[in-house]
Design goal:
The chain has 277 residues and is mainly alpha-helical. Helices cover 64% and strands 0% of the residues. The longest helix is centred in the first third of the chain and has 21 residues.
Length: 277
């Protein structure tokens, strides 16, 4: 989860306009009444009404809307402008001003935070692809096509064809300097798994695994105590890595890989609890 929050006081303290206007109007009213001005009460009323409009505007601009604050001009109109049995004198004005000041502080403290957005596994996949972008630099389209086809034919259960394409891709990777070790090991891991599936056997301790040097290029990064089945984790990381490389380096296979993106998302979703901080 990510939340965009503006700490209280980090803005220019625009909320201070609410107490300044409301209590300022009341103060002017008291001074005018002291000198005997007959319409002094309207200074306090004007201060409260204008301050409520300022609060409404500020609340409307926040990432999250406080409906109580937005409707304060209506409350001010009903209390001070509409004929009613409520006194519009200094006491009521002071109570109203104190209330909208409380609301102004509340809006500033609580409603600056945007609604949290859920981080989906598709986001995780996109972030991973962006993170390993340097790995793609040396991969040409033909090699990328072989990698993409290795994954797709494996997904379709064409294990013999998949193994051939992986071998061809590995041969092309051998000509790249520096060699993309994590990508080579991903192909070796998947080729070994393909052989197991073709022969209907299970290898408890696979020959090929990722190394510590590959860690930064893997999508599923777990602490040692979180790893229940190292072979399964290596296979899942290999599949995600090959998908990422294929979709970024083989325009010819991009649509086909996008159609099978759900397969990769499901792999990541199986680690949701461990990938979520």
């Amino acid at each position: 989860m990510t939340t965009n929050t503006i700490p209280f006081g980090s803005t220019l303290r625009h909320w201070i306009a609410v107490p300044a206007i409301s209590f300022g109007g009341i103060g002017i009213e008291v001074l005018l009444a002291f000198v005997g001005f007959p319409y002094a009460v309207w200074a306090g009323i004007a201060g409260c009404v204008v301050a409520s409009c300022v609060l409404c505007y500020q609340a409307y601009l926040k990432p999250r809307r406080d409906l109580v604050s937005i409707f304060t001009p209506l409350f001010a109109f009903l209390i001070f402008i509409m004929p009613n049995d409520i006194s519009s004198g200094v006491i009521v004005q002071t109570l109203f001003a104190a209330t909208i000041v409380f609301l102004a502080v509340r809006v500033e403290k609580l409603f600056n935070a945007t609604t949290p957005q859920e981080r989906t596994m598709k986001d995780v996949l996109n972030e991973y692809i962006a993170r390993i972008e340097p790995l793609f630099a040396a991969i040409d389209e033909e090699t990328g096509h072989l990698i993409a086809q290795s994954l797709l034919t494996y997904k379709f259960g064409l294990y013999g064809s998949a193994a051939e394409k992986m071998t061809a891709a590995l041969a092309r990777l051998d000509t790249i300097t520096p060699q993309p070790g994590a990508l080579e090991r991903a192909l070796l891991i998947l080729r070994e798994r393909t052989g197991d599936l073709a022969d209907s056997r299970v290898t408890a301790n696979p020959e090929h695994t990722f190394t510590g040097a590959d860690y930064d290029d893997l999508a599923i990064q777990l602490r040692p105590e979180q790893i229940e089945d190292p072979a399964a984790l290596d296979l899942d990381n290999a599949l995600v890595l090959l998908y990422a490389v294929g979709i970024e380096t083989s325009p010819e296979d991009e649509q086909a890989l996008e159609e099978h993106q759900r397969f990769v998302i499901q792999i990541l979703e199986s680690y949701t609890d461990k990938l979520t901080p």
